[in-house]
Design brief:
This is MarR family transcriptional regulator. It comes from Komagataeibacter nataicola. Pfam families: DUF488-N3i (PF22752). With about 120 residues, the protein is α/β, with parallel strands linked by helices. It is built from five helices and four strands, in the order E-E-H-E-H-H-H-E-H. About 45% of the residues lie in helices and about 15% in strands. The chain has a four-stranded parallel β-sheet with strand order 1-4-2-3.
Length: about 120
């Protein structure tokens, strides 16, 4: 059985249905205390590389290229992906990010990628 995978900003208050709360940014978000973040895990290893993050720069014009390159990085780094898949199978999973843009960020790409892997395995 697969549980829901939510995508939320780390700045938003925790929700009752969050389940496992995993920060997927490489850098700690500004102005958020560890207590307020209420994380189950900070999985820096699953974040896009510094080079990819800087290249993307949250420019929507680079979104398609960012998605392709980030998915290639995820495929080359299966251990943290497997960790999140195991969590998603065990209970609800919320991937958290710090970016202002709610549509163009690594957590959106990651959640869609996890859903595809879970659907393919079903």
């Amino acid at each position: 059985m697969t549980h829901p995978i939510h995508v939320r900003r780390v700045y938003d208050p925790p929700a009752p249905d969050d389940g496992y709360r995993v920060l997927v940014d490489r850098l700690w978000p500004r102005g958020v205390s560890k207590q307020r973040a209420d994380l189950s895990l900070w999985l820096k290893d699953i974040a896009p590389s510094t080079e990819l993050r800087q290249w993307f720069g949250h420019d929507p014009a680079r979104w398609d290229g960012f998605q392709e390159r980030y998915i290639a990085q995820l495929q080359a780094n299966p251990q943290p992906v497997q960790q999140l898949l195991d969590m998603a199978r065990a209970g609800p999973l919320t991937v958290l990010y710090g970016a202002r843009d709610t549509q163009h960020n690594e957590a959106v790409v990651l959640a869609a990628y996890l859903h595809r892997l879970l659907d393919h395995a079903a």
